[in-house]
Write a structure and sequence with these properties.
Blueprint (H helix, E strand, L loop, with lengths): L2 H14 L23 E6 L6 H11 L5 E7 L11 H18 L9 H5 L2 E3 L16 H11 L6 E5 L4 H13 L2 H10 E5 L6 H8 L4 E3 L37 H9 L2 H5 L13 H4 L22 E3 L8 E3 L2 E2 L4 E2 L2 E4 L5 E4 L2 H4 L2 H14 L12 E4 L8 E6 L3 E9 L6 E8 L9 E2 L1 E4 L6 E8 L14 E12 L6 E11 L1
Helix pairs in contact: 2-3, 5-6, 6-8
Length: 498
């Protein structure tokens, strides 16, 4: 089947199956992870090389009720080449254990500290691929394989905060000890998000296992290109000077002193940053159950940023990465109105556009560690068109149609709620369809009318205006007036035909 025929069939299928969730292989730009339940997570961290990993580990503990944490693995990196620090992970988990009983007053599902302590292990004890080979299976690599081998239909996310050589060891061992079919089944289950390349293992993995779902901006294993990376949108305002338009006051040590470090044992385990706050946190922010469901496809965008699938220079196969075609106006960058009132376009904006929401959520959860339920704030619950599931709602319309969406929301604390509907114009690109145009007629009401303007927005040269069908993502953000203000979301994906 030709690529054109396949694209036509996919578009036809999408437009004719009411409410369908479209799916393909994880390597395709239009795939969607359809699993139900919490995301499964393995963390590889070079904690101890500088404070930001420990900072991210503290935040991770505050979302451990929304994730199934399978392993916490201490690794090396270009910044910490000859030692691993599982003791530092254990220190953060112990601080979490002191506040876990109070967290249970606010939500269900918080694991016991003893359960998390049992998941701590050490990866390869030296730097890069020189520490990988036959008979070098570390306890961390064993933990990756054990998690991947569990009879669980959910994919396994592996977030790489430092070097990737422990993942490389696990994959090398699997290739040496399994049949090609067994290896392929294992690879299909994995989803990797790497915070740049911090050793030589990432490029080796991508070359040797070309079907592996991999999110990264490929770099040399040093910091020379960090400033260009999407993940720096978490807090790169001052050090990298690459977050023009973002609210820099939310990522200072002063804000963190007031809202995080001053609150109980877990807050006390949160150090001051040296360079930026929590550079590794975007690797798991899209897994948080806030209603954006961004972990289902890296091109959808969410608190952890948005990526595009294409072939970067120097790589052997397409990745979820940064870049794109400026001529077609389809890139990994978002255009966002900053706190200065001006429009800003950058990869970092795909993260910092959500900064107020994710920092307020962080502060509220830290409150949960020390306060009673009635003294803290909790996010609203949002329903659109009576859809109780957090999964995205799918609609099919034609260009020129006007349709309605109705939302209901409740707040566990009785706070007043503000509704905001917006078209996430850059989200959802896939080769099988274009990006459609929408006009939201009542953006601040609980019930809104939306007009589908075009099935495929024109490119820079006004081409592709008659591409047949396109996709548009609508986000509903509902924010309470509590302290701090908290936001919940719903995503509506609209297929627009000519």
């Amino acid at each position: 089947m030709t690529s054109l025929a396949r694209a036509c069939l996919r578009a036809l299928w999408l437009l004719t199956l009411p409410g369908a969730i479209f799916a393909a292989q994880p390597g395709d730009a239009d795939f969607v992870d359809e699993f139900a339940g919490k995301p499964r997570l393995v963390v590889l961290t070079d904690i101890g090389n500088e404070p930001d990993d420990q900072m991210s580990m503290v935040r991770l503990m505050l979302y451990s009720n929304e994730l199934d944490i399978e392993a916490l693995v201490a690794t090396t990196s270009t910044w910490q080449r000859d030692r691993v620090r599982p003791d530092m992970i254990a220190k953060v988990v112990a601080a979490y254990g002191e506040v876990q009983p109070n967290l249970l007053k606010h939500a269900e599902g918080w694991p016991k500290a003893e359960q998390l302590q049992a998941k701590i292990s050490s990866g390869q004890p030296a730097f890069g691929m020189a520490a990988v080979g036959r008979n070098k299976l570390s306890t961390g690599a064993k933990a990756i394989l054990a998690a991947a081998d569990r009879a669980d239909p959910r994919p396994l996310w592996i977030t790489v905060w430092g070097g990737a050589n422990t993942l490389a060891q696990a994959l090398m061992t699997a290739r040496l000890t399994r049949s090609p079919q067994q290896l392929a089944a294992l690879i299909t289950k994995l989803r990797v998000y790497s915070v740049s390349d911090q050793d030589d293992a990432g490029p080796w993995i991508r070359r040797e296992f070309p079907t592996l779902h991999y999110i990264v901006r490929p770099t040399q294993p040093d910091s020379h290109e960090y400033m260009y990376a999407t993940w720096t949108g978490i807090s790169g305002d001052v050090f990298y000077k690459n977050c023009e338009g973002a609210d820099a006051t939310l990522v200072t040590n002063e804000w963190l002193d007031r809202n995080i470090r001053s609150k109980g044992p877990l807050g006390a385990a949160y150090p001051k940053f040296e360079y930026i706050m929590e550079g590794d946190t975007p690797s798991f922010l899209n897994l948080v159950g806030n209603g954006l469901e961004a972990y289902r496809n890296p091109g959808w965008g969410g608190w952890g940023g948005r990526y595009l699938r294409f072939l970067p220079s120097g790589e052997s196969r397409p990745l979820w990465t940064q870049g794109g075609d400026a001529d077609s106006r389809i890139t990994s960058r978002d255009e966002v109105t900053g706190v200065d009132g001006r429009s800003h376009v950058s990869d970092q904006a795909t993260v910092w556009r959500w900064r107020e929401a994710f920092q307020n959520d962080f502060a509220a959860r830290m409150d949960w560690t020390v306060k009673e339920f009635n003294a803290a704030n909790h996010a609203p619950t949002v329903v659109v068109d009576q859809g109780r599931s957090p999964w995205p709602i799918h609609l099919q319309v034609r260009a020129g149609d006007t349709f309605e969406l109705a939302a209901e929301a409740s707040d566990p604390d009785g706070n007043a709620l503000q509704f905001r509907w917006f078209h996430y114009a850059e989200a959802g690109h896939a080769p099988a369809w274009g990006l459609a145009g929408l006009e939201i007629l009542e953006p601040g009401a609980s019930r809104t009318r939306i007009r589908a303007t075009v099935a495929c927005r024109p490119d820079w040269m006004n081409h592709n205006a008659n591409c047949g069908s396109g996709i548009a993502h609508i986000i509903l953000a509902v924010t309470d007036n509590g302290t701090p203000r908290l936001t919940a979301y719903r995503r509506i994906i609209v297929a627009v035909a000519q």
